[in-house]
Design goal:
five-stranded antiparallel β-sheet, 10 helices, 249 residues, alpha+beta
């Protein structure tokens, strides 16, 4: 259950902070995102979010497709990170055209023309993780490392089992690769951070709550309906990724 009245920049920051803290994407100074995650917006929010050049093209395209003026509208942000009906408002072909223009040759866009049948490009983070980043193609060559990146970079959900001063134990389904196909495996307990030195991205989790995670951080508390939407969006990306794997593309 995304916080009622939460502004878009704050919701964006909750999910963007974990990889930004690690230096994987976005501008320098991840402390800006900690400020935004607490709801303290500023005049530079848009410029800061725009520097996440992997996420921003999806937000732009999704806002246009949904007829929403602001790419940082909370509805757009939730659809990109979690999922939901808003993803259906954007035509797959228009999204692919937008991504080709935004990414050019700097990303792994060679797969884009091969989509067909029920395969759809979705303006969702999992689409970028599985199909634009190169890690799926490296699974057979490098095994554990690409799988670890895919597991941590995807937005995943789980049920809180226990909560400590700074960490929580969350039961969640990890990605597994059997040498041929990627899939969510049996639920297992993961240890993730919810607070460090007094800083948190979301409210303190409670046992039994359904939460989302990005890298090793708890990002938000969501509903069962939102968890199903997240699975549905991820399933779409996994189907295409597995077809790529089966044809050695």
């Amino acid at each position: 259950m995304t916080a009622v009245g939460m502004n878009g920049p704050a919701l964006f920051a909750r999910y963007a902070y974990p990889p930004n803290e690690l230096g994987y994407c976005g501008p320098d100074d991840p402390s800006v995102l900690l400020r935004l995650a607490s709801g303290n917006s500023g005049s530079g929010d848009r410029d800061h979010a725009r520097q996440f050049d992997g996420a921003w093209p999806y937000l732009e395209a999704l806002a246009v497709g949904a007829g929403i003026d602001d790419p940082l509208d909370s509805r757009v942000i939730e659809a990109y990170w979690v999922g939901g009906d808003l993803l259906d408002s954007l035509d797959s072909g228009k999204l692919l055209q937008h991504l080709r223009g935004a990414f050019g040759e700097r990303e792994n866009t060679g797969f884009l023309p091969v989509l067909g049948g029920r395969d759809r490009a979705l303006a969702h983070h999992s689409f970028h993780v599985f199909l634009v980043y190169p890690w799926v193609k490296l699974l057979r060559k490098r095994g554990a490392v690409p799988l670890s990146v895919l597991q941590n970079c995807r937005i995943r959900w789980g049920v809180v089992e226990d909560v400590g001063e700074e960490h929580a134990l969350v039961v969640s389904s990890p990605l597994e690769f059997d040498g041929e196909q990627l899939a969510r495996g049996r639920p297992a307990t993961q240890r993730v951070r919810w607070r460090v030195e007094g800083n948190a991205l979301a409210a303190m989790p409670v046992p039994g709550a359904v939460v989302t995670m990005h890298w090793d951080w708890v990002c938000d508390r969501i509903t069962a309906e939102q968890s199903r939407a997240l699975d549905a969006a991820e399933d779409s990306g996994l189907r295409i990724a597995n077809r790529m794997l089966s044809t050695d593309m």
